[in-house]
Specification:
Length: 109
């Protein structure tokens, strides 16, 4: 797995943020974004996603992710949250119930 940007240094689990990204020549994959309960509600996930999307736009890479936890009410909230960044549902739920989403790169003026 290649870290596409120094996200890991900035957003570390020591700060209560778990972030795993992988990059290929064709896309950027947000494999994990978890914010510890104690620091939620401070806009950290929003900041992380803005940086991830900005990086992807600069490289003209789509971003893909799986919106999970299919076993809680939060999945609908996650899909809605990711949609505010331009992610769209890109297929059927996976066998473990996660929702695949994809964001196309935006043109930078």
């Amino acid at each position: 797995m290649v870290q596409p940007y120094d996200f890991e240094t900035k957003w570390t689990r020591d700060r209560g943020v778990w972030l795993v990204l992988s990059k290929t020549s064709e896309n950027l994959s947000l494999d994990l974004l978890h914010i510890d309960q104690a620091i939620r509600g401070q806009g950290i996930a929003r900041q992380v996603l803005l940086e991830v999307c900005s990086y992807a736009d600069g490289k003209q890479l789509p971003v893909k992710l799986l919106a999970g936890d299919p076993f809680t009410w939060a999945q609908r909230e996650l899909v809605s949250f990711y949609s505010t960044f331009g992610f769209r549902v890109s297929g059927r739920k996976t066998t473990d119930g996660c929702v695949p989403m994809r964001r196309e790169p935006q043109q930078i003026p």
